[in-house]
Amino acid sequence: MAAVAAAVIPAVLTHDGKTPDPTHGTPTSVTTSPNLTLADPCDLDRLGDSWYQPPASRYNESLFANRQRPAVYSTVTPDANPEISVKGQLNLDVPAGQVLYLIRRPDPKTKDTFGNPGNNRYYPATPVTPTSAGCWEDDNRPVGYPGVKGIGQIYMLVLVGRDQAAKFPADRAAKGWDGYSQDQWRAINSIDVMSFNVSTA
């Protein structure tokens, strides 16, 4: 796993559909709309008007070098404690012994209705198992508490070992646990697959 991570992580490139991140090298060509197959097996092109493509979507170019780039859409309920649903297409072979996991992180650059910023901690949400066509989704996930509206969510899809994935639910259930700090998350052996921001404002 460490060898895989060492080979993949330095090659991570970011895309926002407009300007490449100079700290990550020069990406190959990028389109501003999802490069979906004509059949669109995930029905992403038939979602309602409340669904949109999150800005600042990033993906690990090494993992998708010879594959269709990933696409994702999200929708947010208008409640004081919003619920977020995400749907996407991700053509990726998950290596044996690893799990694709959805992580969320409250954006510290955003604030709730009381003026409190996002805490920037890492919260494992759920393992993700794409279909044979690469379709995946996570529906109706609450952001946190009444009044949290305004706190943006940074979603991450990462690859972690099965043993680590098995520890996430136990950590979440621990008394007083409130996500992983940045230092704790860095100590977890993971490979970034993609990330995207969802606004709740």
Number of helices: 3
Question: Got a strand count?
Answer: 8
Strand content: 25-35%
How much helical structure, as a percent, in the residues? 10-25%
Q: How would you describe the shape?
A: globular
Question: Can you tell me about this structure?
Answer:
With 201 residues, the protein is of the alpha+beta class. The protein is built from three helices and eight strands, in the order H-E-E-E-E-E-E-E-H-H-E. Strands 1-8-7-4-5 form a five-stranded antiparallel sheet. Strand 2 (71-76) and strand 3 (83-89) form a beta hairpin. The chain is globular. The chain starts with a helix and ends with a strand. Mean pLDDT is 84; it is low at 1-37.
What's the structural blueprint in terms of helices and strands?
Blueprint: H1 2-8, E1 58-59, E2 71-76, E3 83-89, E4 98-106, E5 123-127, E6 135-142, E7 153-161, H2 162-173, H3 182-186, E8 190-198
Antiparallel strand pairs: 1-8, 2-3, 3-6, 4-5, 4-7, 7-8
Keyword list:
3 helices, alpha+beta, 3-stranded antiparallel sheet, single chain, 201 residues, disordered N terminus, 5-stranded antiparallel sheet, globular
